[in-house]
Structure formats: C-alpha cells, structure tokens
Amino acid sequence: GQQLNQSPQSMFIQEGEDVSMNCTSSSIFNTWLWYKQDPGEGPVLLIALYKAGELTSNGRLTAQFGITRKDSFLNISASIPSDVGIYFCAGQLMDSNYQLIWGAGTKLIIKP
Amino acid sequence: GAGVSQSPRYKVAKRGQDVALRCDPISGHVSLFWYQQALGQGPEFLTYFQNEAQLDKSGLPSDRFFAERPEGSVSTLKIQRTQQEDSAVYLCASSRSGGNTDTQYFGPGTRLTVL
Q1: pLDDT of B79
Q2: Across the strands, what pairs with A33?
Q3: Given pLDDT bands bounded at 50, 70 and 90, which one contains residue A1?
Q4: Please, are residues A32 and A49 in contact by the beta-carbon 8 Å criterion?
Q5: Residues 6 or more apart in contact with residue B58 via CB below 8 angstroms
Q6: Pairs across A and B, CB distance < 8 A
Q7: Minimal CA–CA distance to A11: which of A22, A3, A20?
Q8: Can you point out the beta strands (E) in B51-115?
Q9: Nearest residue to A5 via CA among A61, A64, A73
C-alpha cells in the first residue's frame, strides 16, 4: 500500500531547542497535514497545507508543502515541555478527497 | 460543543469473542471515519461513512470487521471472532462534510487487547 516515510523516529532535545521533522513519499499528494497525538488521546490537527510550496505557521510551528508534492516538513521553534508527544504527518492522495495516508510518527522527548 | 467520543475506552477480549466499539461524532458532522492504530504506528484507514451510507470499506482487514451508521450519527465497529492481531487502538474521526479541506476531528480511541 501507499507509505509515507517519516523521520526521525524519535528526538531527544533540550528545552528551548528547535526541532525539525519531515515526511517523504513516492506518491504525489494534494494535501499534507501535521497532527500531534498525546498518550491516550486521538491525533489533533496542527497545520494543514493545500498548495505545493505553501509555507504555513501556527505559533511556534512552521510547516511547508514541498514543491514536488511528495514531501513536507514541520519545524518547532524554542521547544517547551508541552511539545512532548508524537507528531504524525498525513497526506491525501490526488485521487481521493478524504482518505489519509499516515507516517509512523516522530516521538519528541524533552530532556530534563 | 462536545468533541468525538468513543466507548469503551478499553476493551479486553478473549480470542474468538465478538466486540462492538461505539463512536459518537460531533453533532451535525456528515462524515465519519474509522482507523486502526497499531502500537508505534500511524493510524490506518478502515472505512468511511457519509451520513448513513458506507462509501468506502476498502481498509477493513477481513470480513470479520463490520461497521454501521444506521441513522447517520452514532457508528459501531464490530469485530467478530477476535484474533490477537486485532489488538490495536481503534480511532473514530468525524468531519463536517468530508472534503479534502475539512478537518477530521478524532476521538480518544478504544484500546482493544485480545488475549
């Protein structure tokens, strides 16, 4: 089936550091989404991207839709303890207006 | 208003038992999705409803899995003769209309453990 390659799998960072994660695919997507999932909860949408090349910010979060439509990255600036969690990218294929393909997640851990 | 709710939050079943998982979407949301999330993985699409119509069930892993949404609101995912490989978190999401710009809002999930 379709796959998204998300990296890194996990990140250990100090509070205040910037974070970067990305997703790539061999398929073209018309939408890229970034979600955060806390333990015992469902994913919550952080940023949605709908156009190739689009760069969108949400507070300390910035995400970009790659111009090839096959990749996206998410940056978090000046990380804080509540940023801990698992971040997922999800893409919507060109021939679907609802089905999402998900990455395996990036686990963010902040070192005390 | 209230978000998506799911019940039970946790379910332990013996292999071979049938289970039923419930999803209450956000009121007025037309579209409803079920996902399966294995440990350490992202969610995988199971099925999609628009109102009471099941428009896509291509992700259901076997004919032991059955989903319904008879009145276009609450949905139930039923798994018959559960197997150990069915152990996962089952997530439900709803959206206003299901278009690609519509946000999918997720419930907290039901963690199913099959012994």
Answers
A1: 98
A2: A48, A90
A3: low
A4: yes
A5: B45, B47
A6: 60
A7: A20
A8: 53-56, 65-68, 75-79, 88-95, 105-106, 110-114
A9: A73
Is B39 within 8 Å of chain A by CB? Answer: no
- Alpha carbon distance A46, A74 (integer Å): 10
Mean pLDDT of chain A: 93
User: Per-residue pLDDT tens for A28-64?
Assistant: 999 999 999 999 999 999 999 999 999 999 999 999 9
- Mutation pick from B104, B105, B110, B111 vs chain A, by most beta carbons of A within 10 Å, is B104
Q: Please provide the DSSP assignment of A30-73 as one string.
A: EEEEEEEE-TTS--EEEEEE-STT-EEEETTEEEEE-TTSSEEE
- Cβ contact (<8 Å) for A42 and B93? yes
Q: DSSP 3-state assignment of B72?
A: coil
What is the mean predicted confidence (pLDDT) over B10-38? 97
